[in-house]
């Protein structure tokens, strides 16, 4: 009996201790409440709401995913989970302004695992922070308008050759595959000075496979888009490492001009303290990132412009008038110049309206570096953030009659600040903006002054994967403006 009562007393004592601990915990919890996170839902484990987002992209309405959650949760910031990561989505012009102005203060660039794995980013990115800073400081010098001017004649001559060999022999052409063929050839020429067609085709095939899985749930199972993207990304990375090592030898032996292309300039960036060059894997990743940005997004934008020009003859006629005036001012065989590009104001308004309705990117990712408060919610350190074009580009608050194609929106002062953001903003704005503008306008000049065209399928569906893409490539029937 003594043992029984002793055991009973022990059990009562344990229960009393647990009760006291629960009381202390509840008091502490009341004194230290959990952070008030933005409203929203994260969906399924790992997958999150990725499937719903992908479904919206395949239906041609990626903005619906964002707008529905803005309506249900908050027009300022809400939480979700995409691509295996919990995200806080900042919305509207105020959200864009905060994200752009908070760069290097509250947030820093970050990539989902699906992107970093597919592009084969070095695993020790924190260790390479100084190298990244040096490369980024060098890039504006190469990509500013003054530096890119010398590539305008190259882009122009390549556009002429491309149209002559890939468009002129046919009555019907598929626009999207052909614009990708052109943009990757230009990227190879400007970024790494490669002109070999076989090499360019191999790059094109690898990039096409990578982009299909670059924004997907990071599930590495056989047959998944992510698995394919990672495998092809490794192959592509090895290709670029080989090119980098060959170029290093050429620079050492002075077989190529020191500042001929982007790759050579990146290889010439050194650490002033020890004289060593930048990390080869980092350079390869940066170059691949530039290809992704310039290849898919630019070709998608050109395709969208040609699609809208086919749908709106009045807009096409205004673009034609502007471009023909430029063409008539040129001598026989004379290529486009910087002065010609500056005259293409209406054509660029058309390009901007195309990018508003069919944005080449949907947004960009950041990582929160310091906890802060936004719109009454706590934004914890370590969480991932996202700004998106979807909350403004088709928002009637910023663009009346938002589904209407109207290039006049960009006349005068244009849209309100932070509402039209196809290239982002702030210190991390897309560095390739000017490069893309030159390539787009150069190509449009050549197409418009050479052909008129009509869509074969007037109701072809547009999907986003990740950039807007006609499901059948946008087949058009072309006719030369001047018949032989």
Automatic annotation (TrEMBL):
GO biological process: sterol metabolic process
Alphabetical list of InterPro entries matching this protein: Cyt_P450, Cyt_P450_CS
Compartment(s) of residence: Membrane
GO cellular component labels: membrane
Membrane-spanning segments: 6-28
CDD domains: CYP90-like
Matches recorded under Pfam families: p450
Cofactor(s) it depends on: heme
GO molecular function, one term: heme binding
Record membrane topology: Single-pass membrane protein
Record keywords, A-Z: Heme, Iron, Membrane, Metal-binding, Monooxygenase, Oxidoreductase, Transmembrane, Transmembrane helix
Family per record: Belongs to the cytochrome P450 family.
Protein name according to UniProt: Cytochrome P450
Organism of this sequence: Carya illinoinensis (Pecan)
Lineage, opening ranks: Eukaryota, Viridiplantae, Streptophyta, Embryophyta, Tracheophyta
């Amino acid at each position: 009996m003594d043992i029984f009562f002793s055991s009973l007393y022990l059990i009562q004592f344990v229960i009393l201790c647990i009760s006291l601990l629960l009381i202390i915990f509840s008091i502490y919890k009341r004194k230290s409440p959990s952070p008030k996170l933005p409203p929203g839902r994260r969906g399924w484990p790992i997958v999150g709401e990725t499937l719903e987002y992908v479904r919206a992209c395949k239906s041609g309405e990626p903005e619906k995913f964002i707008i529905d959650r803005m309506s249900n949760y908050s027009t300022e910031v809400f939480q979700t989970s995409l691509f295996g990561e919990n995200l806080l989505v900042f919305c509207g012009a105020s959200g864009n302004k905060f994200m752009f102005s908070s760069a290097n203060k509250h947030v820093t660039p970050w990539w989902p695992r699906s992107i970093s794995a597919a592009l084969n980013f070095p695993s020790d990115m924190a260790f390479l922070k100084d190298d990244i800073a040096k490369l980024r400081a060098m890039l504006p010098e190469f990509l500013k308008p003054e530096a890119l001017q010398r590539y305008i004649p190259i882009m122009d001559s390549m556009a002429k050759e491309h149209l002559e060999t890939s468009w002129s022999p046919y009555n019907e052409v598929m626009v999207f595959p052909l614009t990708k063929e052109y943009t990757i050839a230009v990227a190879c020429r400007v970024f790494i000075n490669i002109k070999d067609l076989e090499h360019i085709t191999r790059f094109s095939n690898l990039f096409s496979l990578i982009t299909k899985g670059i924004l997907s749930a990071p599930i590495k199972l056989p047959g998944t888009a992510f698995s394919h993207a990672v495998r092809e990304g490794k192959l592509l990375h090895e290709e670029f490492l080989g090119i980098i090592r060959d170029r290093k030898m050429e620079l050492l032996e002075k077989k190529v001009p020191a500042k001929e292309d982007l790759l050579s300039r990146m290889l010439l960036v050194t650490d002033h303290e020890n004289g060593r060059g930048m990390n080869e894997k980092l350079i390869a990743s940066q170059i691949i990132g530039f290809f992704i940005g310039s290849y898919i997004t630019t070709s998608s934008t050109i395709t969208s412009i040609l699609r809208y020009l086919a749908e709106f003859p009045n807009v096409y006629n205004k673009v034609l008038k502007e471009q023909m005036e430029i063409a008539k001012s040129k001598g026989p065989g004379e290529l486009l110049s910087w002065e010609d590009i500056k005259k293409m104001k209406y054509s660029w308004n058309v390009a901007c309206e195309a990018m508003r309705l069919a944005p080449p990117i949907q947004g960009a990712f950041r990582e929160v570096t310091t906890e802060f408060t936004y719109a009454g919610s706590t934004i914890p350190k370590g969480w991932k953030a996202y700004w998106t074009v979807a909350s403004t580009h088709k928002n009637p608050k910023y663009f009346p009659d938002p589904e209407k194609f109207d290039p006049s929106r960009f006349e005068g002062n244009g849209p309100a600040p932070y509402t039209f953001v196809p290239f982002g903003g702030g210190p991390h704005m897309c560095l390739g903006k000017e490069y893309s503008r030159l390539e787009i306008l150069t190509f449009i000049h050549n197409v418009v002054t050479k052909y008129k065209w009509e869509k074969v399928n007037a109701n072809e569906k547009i999907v986003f994967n990740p950039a807007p893409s006609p499901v059948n490539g946008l087949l058009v029937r072309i006719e030369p403006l001047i018949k032989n």
